[in-house]
Amino acid sequence: MGDGGSTACPAVTLPDYAALPSIAKLPDPFQSTDGTRITRKDQWPCRRAEIGAQAQRYELGPKPAKPATVTGAFSNNQITVSVSDAGKNMSFAATITLPTTGSPPYPAMIGIGGISLGEAQLRSMGVATILFPNDAIAAQVNASSRGQGSFYTLYGNTHTAGAMIAWAWGVSRLIDALEQTPAANIDPKRLGVTGCSRNGKGALIAGAFDERIVLTVPQESGSGGSASWRVSDAMLASGTMVQTLSEITGENVWFMDAFKQFNNAASKLPFDHHMIEGMVAPRALLVIENTSQTWLGNLSTYTNSMAAHLVWEALGIPDKMGVSQVGDHAHCQWNGSQQGEVTAYVQKFLIGAGTGNTEVLKTDGSYTFDRANWVPWTVPTLQ
């Protein structure tokens, strides 16, 4: 499942909304749709594919497969990606800024709508930056911008994909183009993705759905990103004003239109976003959050990410997933206080051969992971 994947997994039959049971706590990422629990690491790719199928079926909409034709052309620091499928065409350009050190082909960080976590620092480490024009692929102006953008030029303005899965499709096409355009001087086997706020939600989805992305860094992404629908609902019920599922479906078009049937029933989702984060495994994920932003649901993002970390623990690679939650800055305004975490992850997992400490699970919000309440399942030691 997903671009870059080579595993052939059996198709899964997913029930309609009315037949979904209510699951009050965080669903078990290790329990397959047939009711059995996985016991081996080599079963994770197909379990991951099931989660991806559920996310597309109930929340995001379908991510189309690689189109018939994808080409890339590089000039004037831009790669132009051209796509043709079923007699229709679309194209977009992504700006590439090469680093000041290192040698080509360079590792690169793809920024969904921009990079808010130290763009100059990335380039000083030898990492190129690529600006992905997500708003041109699928608009996110407000709730009335559904079906607008070049993705829908190709697939029709009634295609059920929400904006985020359309962006993920676009990032995959960018990677397709980079793979066949060596003139861009980018190493397609060393690609990361990031974004902040709404674009951080998109970065997580892009990283979850393309196995060619080796490092995913969602920043201050909140609900629909690194927060849990269930935990955010519980926070609102206890009096904290946070973004919830029922609010977000009316605010914008990040999700498929039918997702709104879960507005008052997030517990009917057979997954939650700890499992969306888990889809990145066994690749690297660094969750960057900001406790000064109450709307993001700080306890929710911490709980969700700590639950996601259990996937990497089960796979025996806990150092490939980290959480850093620091609230000393405005929303998406990078002040460098989390630079150490980013540098360690970039050097080890994007550039390669880094030796910094990537075992970081921290918050300055004095939150505790209420595992006894939210995680009613055990973590297997996968063989």
Write up what this structure looks like.
The two termini are 22 Å apart. Helix 5 (163-179) packs across helix 6 (198-208) and helix 7 packs antiparallel against helix 10. The chain has 383 residues and is an alpha/beta fold. It has twelve helices and ten strands. It has helices spanning 44-60, 119-124, 134-137, 150-155, 163-179, 198-208, 229-237, 245-251, 273-278, 298-314, 339-352, 371-374, and strands spanning 69-75, 78-85, 88-97, 106-112, 128-132, 186-196, 213-219, 284-289, 321-325, 361-363. The mean pLDDT is 97. 31% of the residues lie in helices and 18% in strands.
In brief, what are we looking at here?
The chain has 383 residues and is an alpha/beta fold.
Helical segment tally? 12
Spans where pLDDT lies below 50 across 5 or more residues: none
Nearest-integer average pLDDT: 97
Residue share in helix? 25-40%
- Could you tell me the strand content as a percent range? 15-25%
- Distance separating the two termini: 22 Å
Give the class from helix and strand content and strand pairing: alpha/beta
Report the radius of gyration as a whole number of Å.
19 Å
Q: H/E element string?
A: HEEEEHEHHHEHEHHHEHEHEH
**Shape field:** globular
**Main beta-sheet annotation:** 10 strands, mixed
The count of DSSP E runs of length 2 or more, i.e. the number of strands, is 10
How are the strands of the biggest sheet laid out side by side?
1-2-3-5-4-6-7-8-9-10
Provide key terms for this protein.
single chain, 383 residues, alpha/beta, ten-stranded mixed sheet, 12 helices, 18% strand, globular
